[in-house]
């Protein structure tokens, strides 16, 4: 994965209800870099989008959700980019629920992620296995860049 320039990982993994406090400094920095409009063809230059993947891969589930939400807000309404971001946000949320040992909530969210993934594949007409760097053919939706 390509590292995100000038944005470090947060100093602590925030888990709601654990007493931890989120390190908002790198998250706010990343969110300010969200483009006015997120377009699929520009994903490799979308710093907060890539940073969200870096966060999730490093176990910062709450933080990934927080950053991706800013990216989601800049996606075209009803666009494929928005659908992908919804799936990624829910994936981060499902992983967070697993960390919090809320297994039923995690299972429900994983089902939602799979439904969004299937919708995304259908919307793209099955033309591509990789969309915005994410393997959408895989039920785990791995970031491949």
Number of strands: 2
Order of helices and strands: HHHHHEE
Broad structural category: mainly alpha
Stretches where pLDDT is under 50 for at least 5 consecutive residues are: none
Walk me through this protein's architecture.
- The protein has about 140 residues and is mainly alpha-helical.
- Helix content is about 50%, strand content about 5%.
- The chain is built from five helices and two strands; from the N terminus they run H-H-H-H-H-E-E.
- It has helices spanning about 25-30, 45-55, 60-75, 80-100, 105-125, and strands at about 130, 135.
- Strands 1-2 form a two-stranded antiparallel ribbon.
- Helix 1 runs parallel beside helix 3.
- The longest helix is centred in the C-terminal third of the chain and has 21 residues, at about 105-125.
- The chain is globular, with a radius of gyration of 15 Å.
- The mean pLDDT is about 95.
